[in-house]
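User: Can you predict the 3D structure for this chain?
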Amino acid sequence: MSSLVRSGRRRLRASALTAVAVAAALAAACSSESGVPVATVPGLGGTLIVPNKMRSTVTIVDVATGKQLASFPVSPEPHEIALSADGTTAVTTAIGGTTLSVIDVEGRRVVRTIDVGADSSTHGIAFLSGDSIVAVTSAATDRVALVDVRRGAVLGSIATAGGRPHILQATADGTRFYTSEAATGTISEFDPALQRLTRTFQVPDAPEGMTVTPNGDEVWVGSSTFFRGRVTVLDPRSGTVTHVVSMFGWPYRIHLTPDARTVLVPDIRRGTLRFIDRASRRELGIVRFGGGDPGGVAITPDGRYAFQTLNSQGRVAIVDVAARQVVGSLDVGDTPDGIAYTPRVFAATP
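Assistant: Here is the predicted structure, written as structure tokens:
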């Protein structure tokens, strides 16, 4: 073997060892106290509010620094969260209880606990127009409760058409909202002003993940059965259901970018986040997390970044939507599921 070859191999081994050492140093420098890797994105700020469902807490994180600003108890087993348009008030559901927790995000504390009575085991939730009333699903009664979070009062409840209502999504103007019902394979449509169920649609399999376009012209639905999942689109005007994409394990949630052009679908069973062009119904790409149990997604108002909760890893992956790649990671506490984001920064207070 020539001395030139031996010298080249030594240089390659030295370079490899240096790369490993640098990676280890970066990992140590970018790890939180819990051991979860933290890597922020330059120029990206704001605040995350994340329910930790098994600990029955909420964790508030400053996105620019990755610092946990607070973690505090809320109502039992909070799976989902709704955030007011101004980013100051959050409400968590409680699959394991009878109450909702109303959170002052800037003050980092629960300011009100609302008992919803018989309509317990709450899950899906959304603010309606005006940011004072939320609609929330009840697995205990198969109903939707309308709750004034400022007054702390339950205004009434509406029966769904199916069983086990799960996700709830509203149109941008809040004049209609929809629920997915896995037990009966249905989507229910409601008029909150009249407090009335208006229509019911049959969709494939057991629907769970769901979103509605801002103007309400399409409802995207994720369904699964026997470890096979698919995404379909419901046209509420005609009642037509169109198949879009198969080969999912479990399309756990469905989210739209703010411009309503791109659909994001986390697959909790396969550990992926899939991207679909809404107009062409063509799949654009996929991000693989190597497990992690991806759950809820929050998206920045400009549509540039998505925050993907990874339930079993206690972190949120920051995903560049256009590049479809992970560019950062934040420690958000154990078992994150739902998630909310505001571009507002509250790190200096209280």
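Residues 3-29 form the longest helix (27 residues). Residues 98 and 117 are 6 Å apart (CA to CA).
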